Amino acid sequence: MAAETVPPVAPKGLDAQGFIEREGSLGRVPHAFRPVVAAARDRVLDLFGPRLHSAYLYGSIPRGTARVGHSDLDLLIALRDEPTDTDRKAVDALGEALDGEFPQIDGVGTLLYSRDLLLSDLERHDMGWFVACLCTPLLGDDLAEYLPRYRPDTLLARETNGDLALLLPRWRERAEGADSDAALRRMVRHTSRHLVRTAFTLVMPRWNGWTSDLDEMAEIFAAYYPARADQLREAAVRGRAPVGEKAVLRTYLDDLGPWLANEYTRVHGTKTPR
Fold it and tell me: CA 253, CA 175: separation in Å to the nearest integer?
């Protein structure tokens, strides 16, 4: 049973009506990252042309918290039609080219979807919310204009991160296949961030606010689940400064991950099947 205390961070991230405010803007992009963003914008447009509906930044760069040489460039691209395997390979190649050209960034992550999927009823409280609240428009017609406003409630918690139990077997397979320091570091960074964000959204409705800061997420979670506090704080650190150690992944996959998946299901239920 979780022992609740007063959260160390006052709820924030909501407007006067209690809706989650959209985070990030192009005006907050640090000067050092502006050439990267400009290159990404031009190349995405060249790559997809009239098939492109819109493109967005998300993560630390549009929030203004990116660190030179440590932060990755995160993009979301919405096409007017369904993306193909060829499209996904082209996006991967684009990310590799940007990562190799700009030392300011440490990797590029790109999400690729169709406009119709992002606006679908099934994705309204998952990827729809992600676009409307966590993405900064870079190109095209902003999909947020066609989406509702969102509160930090249990519906949002369930539909955003209520599928951790399904992800754990996939992570185990990837961990077994990770045979280099670089591959392990990428996986540690990805799984660390995902677990911290899932732990935060587990308690988000009780805290009644929003933040994307990993350290704040860990501290907010710790107020409700102090027995797991140190694990989350360590995961927040590894989300920013990953290590290529399988021992870290084993801790996630054998202990923290299964516990969090079970507790999430108990509190919020499971995500609508995709």
Answer: 9
